């Protein structure tokens, strides 16, 4: 993700301006938005001479750790930083949602000829380790007429500290008292001790494990499952409707929540008949103050580009474009980012 390194003064239709010659922005974090960020950052770098943006997908927890330790210029997380994490950053923190997506339950059941439907009870019990076989009556009840195999259920979860895990467990805790009082919500949780629970790193690792394991089910970001052509379960939402994981249904969920001043909007169990039940924004983590004035300007130019030009490519890569009111809020929030040279 490298652009030419000649000096320039960037300027485009998105309003990006400033002397950003010979600037490298280094980021790390969430794998959830990594395909889209990789595409965006490469394109921005190629269109902005003198600026290079590199990003390492290592999981939201790893990104937040790097950000707190100030070993990166920005980070990314599907779990917005909490107050305790923010308090550890002397340079201040600005959280900027750049896109949104669905967490889906992808599965590997080659003999199943119709899309799998899962009730809230069914998928909660699967991830509590309380459903052992695919022909369990709790699953069969929602899949009338389906030839469910008498096959063990293998549950694939994340091995790393993950914002995707946070989004998924936040939802499960909202709909299941047993999950809330058991594994609970977190970037890492204690899953049931069972040889049928397999851990894999990052979204692509979970996706690959599901593909290689007949009888497997696991949680991944929509785009990873779509690219791998894995089937995804329709899930029962708060209204009792079984909703397929489409971009339209994810957008319907996002439409139900207002963006607060601190940009930390959560949808643990969205309302609305067409709302897909597991949807989240994903955040870019920026410092409020940068020692390097050119880095501060380059980062703001990058975010403006992602909010304007970049949004058009989000749906084709399996992500939800931000609503106009959210884009407006994020653009306004950019004004709080500055260099130490600014009083």
Automatic annotation (TrEMBL):
The terms describing its cellular component in GO are: ATP-binding cassette (ABC) transporter complex
Chain intervals with Low complexity compositional bias = 8-20
Q: Which segments constitute the PBP domain? A: 17-306
Instruction: Extract the Pfam families matched here.
Output: PBP_like_2
Q: Which UniProt keywords apply?
A: Phosphate transport, Transport
GO biological process, alphabetically ordered:
phosphate ion transmembrane transport
Region annotated Disordered sits at 1-24
What GO molecular function annotations does the UniProt record carry, in alphabetical order? Answer: phosphate ion binding
What the entry lists under PANTHER family is as follows:
PHOSPHATE-BINDING PROTEIN PSTS (PTHR42996:SF1)
The function of this protein is: Part of the ABC transporter complex PstSACB involved in phosphate import.
Give the quaternary structure.
The complex is composed of two ATP-binding proteins (PstB), two transmembrane proteins (PstC and PstA) and a solute-binding protein (PstS).
Q: Which family does it belong to?
A: Belongs to the PstS family.
- Can you name this protein? Phosphate-binding protein
Upper lineage is: Bacteria, Pseudomonadati, Planctomycetota, Planctomycetia, Pirellulales
Task: Name the encoding gene, please.
Answer: pstS_2
């Amino acid at each position: 993700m490298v652009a030419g390194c000649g000096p320039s003064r960037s300027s485009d239709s998105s309003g990006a301006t400033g002397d950003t010659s010979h600037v490298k922005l280094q980021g790390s974090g969430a794998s959830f938005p990594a395909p889209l960020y990789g595409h965006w950052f490469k394109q921005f770098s190629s269109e902005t001479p003198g600026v290079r943006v590199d990003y390492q997908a290592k999981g939201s927890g790893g990104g937040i750790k790097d950000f707190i330790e100030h070993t990166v210029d920005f980070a990314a997380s599907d779990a917005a930083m909490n107050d305790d994490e923010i308090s550890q950053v002397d340079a201040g923190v600005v959280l900027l949602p750049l896109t949104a997506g669905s967490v889906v339950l992808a599965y590997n059941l080659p003999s199943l000829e119709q899309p799998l439907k899962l009730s809230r009870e069914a998928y909660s019990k699967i991830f509590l380790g309380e459903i052992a076989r695919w022909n369990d009556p709790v699953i069969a009840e929602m899949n009338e007429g389906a030839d469910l195999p008498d096959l063990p259920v293998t549950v694939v979860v994340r091995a790393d500290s993950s914002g995707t895990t946070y989004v998924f467990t936040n939802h499960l805790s909202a709909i299941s008292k047993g999950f809330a009082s058991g594994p609970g919500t977190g970037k890492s949780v204690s899953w049931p001790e069972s040889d049928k629970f397999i851990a894999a790193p990052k979204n692509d690792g979970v996706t690959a494990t599901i593909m290689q394991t007949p009888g497997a089910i696991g949680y991944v970001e929509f785009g990873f499952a779509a690219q791998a052509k894995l089937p995804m379960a329709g899930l029962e939402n708060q209204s009792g409707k079984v909703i397929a994981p489409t971009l339209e249904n994810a957008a319907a969920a996002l439409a139900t929540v207002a963006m607060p001043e601190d940009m930390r909007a959560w949808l643990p169990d969205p309302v609305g008949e067409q709302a897909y039940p597991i949807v989240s924004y994903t955040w870019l983590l920026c410092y409020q103050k940068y020692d390097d004035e050119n880095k501060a300007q380059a980062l703001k130019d990058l975010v403006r580009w992602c909010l304007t030009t970049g949004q058009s490519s989000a749906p084709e890569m399996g992500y939800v474009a931000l609503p106009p009111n959210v884009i407006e809020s994020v653009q306004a929030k950019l004004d709080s980012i500055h260099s130490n040279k600014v009083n």
